[in-house]
Amino acid sequence: SQTIHQWPATLVQPVGSPLSLECTVEGTSNPNLYWYRQAAGRGLQLLFYSVGIGQISSEVPQNLSASRPQDRQFILSSKKLLLSDSGFYLCAWKKQGSTDTQYFGPGTRLTVL
Amino acid sequence: GESVGLHLPTLSVQEGDNSIINCAYSNSASDYFIWYKQESGKGPQFIIDIRSNMDKRQGQRVTVLLNKTVKHLSLQIAATQPGDSAVYFCAENSQGAQKLVFGQGTRLTINP
Hints:
The structure holds 2 protein chains of 2 kinds.
Chain A: E1 3-7, E2 10-13, E3 19-26, E4 32-38, E5 45-52, E6 55-58, E7 65-70, E8 73-78, E9 87-94, E10 103-104, E11 108-112
Parallel strand pairs in A: 2-11
Antiparallel strand pairs in A: 1-3, 3-8, 4-5, 4-9, 5-6, 7-8, 9-10, 9-11
Chain B: E1 10-14, E2 19-24, E3 30-38, E4 45-51, E5 56-58, E6 62-67, E7 72-77, E8 86-94, E9 101-102, E10 106-111
Parallel strand pairs in B: 1-10
Antiparallel strand pairs in B: 2-7, 3-4, 3-8, 5-6, 6-7, 8-9, 8-10
């Protein structure tokens, strides 16, 4: 069966510090991968998605970037965090090439102070 | 989308009653629909899905109805329990699209 992992689970960072959130998927190959952000009490905002290694599509121009160095690894980064980067970050995967369900990871709660 | 920044609408029901959560979509090419449940502090979990060649699908205590004519999707939860308290999101996908389009979400609260 497939599983998706995110770490860390929670993170408190000062403004201006760098960020690296990691997401890995097990039990499948060549998945589509997604990063979402969710502000408290709000909906899901798609940040980036990837259909293959090194292929990143950006949905919202902002202070973040994404990379996919390996088939089942998706990384969300920032060089300098802003207060507005606080939120709940969710990674998700889907089988490529199919109209199919997207599965979410457990999320990372980021607080920027 | 534009709905991401809005506060979630809330639905309050009595424990034991049936709940109906509604969702409207705009893309007539959408052919696959999903309902997710998100509990506080967790990632959204798949509940049930339906393809456009169906208008009803049932699971355990949940039923999804699809009305393609008016582009409307609903989730019915029978005999609502305290554990059903969560935010519920609908999502749609169309053939060839790489990403889902999510609805704004509805917060379901259960009154004892």
